[in-house]
Amino acid sequence: MAESPDSFFKATSDPTAKDPKTKFPLDGYDILKVPKVELVAAAATAPALHALSSTRVARVSQDLVIKSSHSVLPSEAEAMKMVSQKTSIHLPRVYRSFTIQGTDGIYDSTGYIVMDYVDGCSLTDCWSGLTVREREDIVKQVVDIIRQLQSLRLPKPGPIGGGPSKGTWFSCYGAGPFANRSEFEEYFNQRLEIAKKTGSGGTQGHTPPFRFSTFVMTHLDITPRNLILDPKGRLWLIDWGYAGAYPPIFEPATLACQSECPDFNDLVLQRLAYDDQSFQQLIGIRGVLHFRGAIDVCHFHALLNFSVIASFANR
After folding, report:
1. What is residue 218's three-state secondary structure?
2. From CA 253, how far away is CA 277, in angstroms rounded?
3. Does domain 119-315 have CATH number 3.90.1200?
4. Where's the Aminoglycoside phosphotransferase domain (predicted)?
């Protein structure tokens, strides 16, 4: 039977990846000495904890996984290392990371991250079965995670070590790199002008321009599927692909845009302190950052060009 096209967009997992009786390809190996070619082979063949499109998280030993994908960039591992060194947040330890270049141009490359396997339950799977007290404890841990991240101030916007910005607040192709605050503000103010012209998100002519004075470490994908509850009741935060230095308001605004588990999002937002004006300003431009199909893409760029032309005409 032919595979449904929708299955390409649905994450899958191999049950043997969580079976303690499974023999994994790198059991007993010193991971720091394993040649890259063997790591690549193990990443492709070991049981997958998660597989979606080109992204694969394979359990290669009792204690380790390898994440591989065309979308895995060096900045993901760098963010994880920084957070591990400067906070008490629970996240997988990174042992190795590297990129293998393909033969079909600049987009044909695959990134690899060798890191700890975290034993536990995805919050997506266990949230509905938790008691009120257990949920309150989890929300408290999430708020503490965000506060610790926001204690890390960084000099300029974007992923750690450079590269394109990805996630909710950027186009499906990413954005940047941004050399400084001015370039970052310009990117968002262009979109604000488009939002005003289209009436997106309730933005109006008097909505002030974006001014970002502070950049902090943000995860930008804190959602139940990226939180693992271990047997001791501790939360582990995984999937740091969108992480980087962004304004503090980006984390709560991203939570508000998450469609998964809205009651979880609401509970966390109720316990976070943030500026409501900045929050509404950012939410207001979301409609011009995401689009469906070629028509909407063309419409977006037409609006962007119109905004730029109009700005020159008014000088």
Report:
1. strand
2. 11
3. yes
4. 62-270
Domain 5-117, what fold?
Phosphorylase Kinase; domain 1 (3.30.200)
Q: What is the pLDDT of residue 86?
A: 98
**Which residue positions in the chain have pLDDT lower than 70?**
1-9, 105-107, 200-205, 290-315
Report phi then psi at 183, rounded to 5.
-65, -40
Looking at residue 287, its pLDDT comes to 79
Contact 253, 218 (CB under 8 A): no
Task: Give Cβ neighbours of residue 235 (< 8 Å, ≥ 6 apart).
Answer: 90, 123, 138, 141, 142, 145, 227, 228, 229
Check for a shared fold between 5-117 and 119-315: no
Q: Which pLDDT does position 198 carry in this prediction? A: 78
Q: Which residues contact 204 (CB under 8 A, 6 or more apart)?
A: 196
Partners of 55 in beta bridges: 52
